[in-house]
Amino acid sequence: MNVSELLRLLQTEHDETAARADSLREQIERLTTALAETEARLAELAATRKIIDGLTPPGHELAPAENATVYQRIVTAFNEHPAKVFRVHDLHEHLGLPTDEPSVNVTRSRLGRLTRQGFLTQPGRGRYQKRT
Question: DSSP labels for 27-84?
Fold first, then answer.
């Protein structure tokens, strides 16, 4: 390999690396903007909750879980136990849901969707935990 060829290869790698760095900078900028928007929304939600909590009469109970959708019950279970790692069968028992295989498979699908949406993490196969 001669010096000219080596310099050409070096320039090609430099150009590719510079393009990758530019792409990463753009991603960082987009993510920084999205994070700022999300944090602002979280602050709005926290303020709204504080206002609603202040307007709620003392001793007011939330609607019973039986009236909630299964998704709401699942999310509530993870919110009430953010550090707990649930297996699907354990979650069904916790929520009082049927433990037959078709019901468990539907819940497994729901948990997968919540994981893809970023609400849950999967610390192990078949195990789900609230993302912190």
Answer: HHHHHHHHHHHHHHHHHHHHHHHHHHHHHSPTTPPPPPGGGS-HHHHHHHHHHHSTTP
